[in-house]
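hey all, quick one before standup. I had two proteins in the batch that finished overnight and I want to keep them in one place so we stop losing track of which output belongs to which input. First protein below, input sequence then structure tokens straight from the run.
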Amino acid sequence: MALGDRGRALGREASGFMAAGTFGVAVDVGLYNALVHLGEHGLLDDQPLLAKTISLVAGTSVAYVGNRFWTYRDRPRGSVAREYSLYMALSTVALVISLACLAFSRYVLDLRSPFADNVSANVIGLALGSLFRFLTYRRYVFPEQPAT
């Protein structure tokens, strides 16, 4: 594939990944804020790391569906169980990245506002985790079909 064609293909792949991820992020961020900050005291107000884990699993599941059936629809399909398991395993690493950012903000810097939580977990943690996901999903979960 020519360099220009490869660049365009990578750009389409990245934009599809971002679109699927946008829906996943909306679920993740919305659910996290509902669990921790909704009302006077959210359901998991005192357990932000558990809330982030729950919200990230839900958001990641939404993003998996978008990536499998849209972004990487032209890639060979493996078993859904294998793909989803690998997708979630790699997402666990991204979760640890996001939780580390949130924990640092909450427990080292003692920043506990909704703004601080969202910047640490849903901006910094999300950006770092998304880069990791993009690089690993395209290689291990949805690999290109080898040229024959």
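OK second protein, same deal, sequence then tokens:
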Amino acid sequence: MSQVKIRKIPVRHVSNLHKLFSDALVTDFNYFSSGYRQQVLDSNNLFKMYAGALNPSRLYIGLYYDNKLAGYSLSSIQSQNKNSLNKKGFLYWLFVHPDIREKKLGKKLLMHTEENLKKRGVDTISLVTHNQQKFYEHQDYVLDKILPELVADVDMYMMNKSLV
């Protein structure tokens, strides 16, 4: 039986995260233009990923399958305004390797991410997706607005979920 662990990605695994992220951008996010994919890679180069892993307002959660990094969520924590104790989270990326999909691991990874954000005082989480809105709706996310052709000539969907 395969072993699954979901936990914070340690700094020593950031190079593995970067490789998985780069590969996913080419395979699973190929609806983006090559120019946009290159922008995303530049914005998430190895150095920036290391910096993000060390930033207390960032949360890198890894899905380890048979002791190998096979999925991740990358999110951040933001105060809503200077006078508010409420914090908002933003989920930038959620990815599970295609070889292990259909095992409800994406749902587990998302739930673990939400729990960690909630422990850090986040009461609302937002995300933007292109083609996974049904998945997020099943996890109680609500469509906020459609962003027509925001990136790469595809509609994107802004979604939110209350964690309180």
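Flagging for whoever picks this up: Residues 81 and 161 are 19 Å apart (CA to CA). The chain is about 35% helix and 40% strand.
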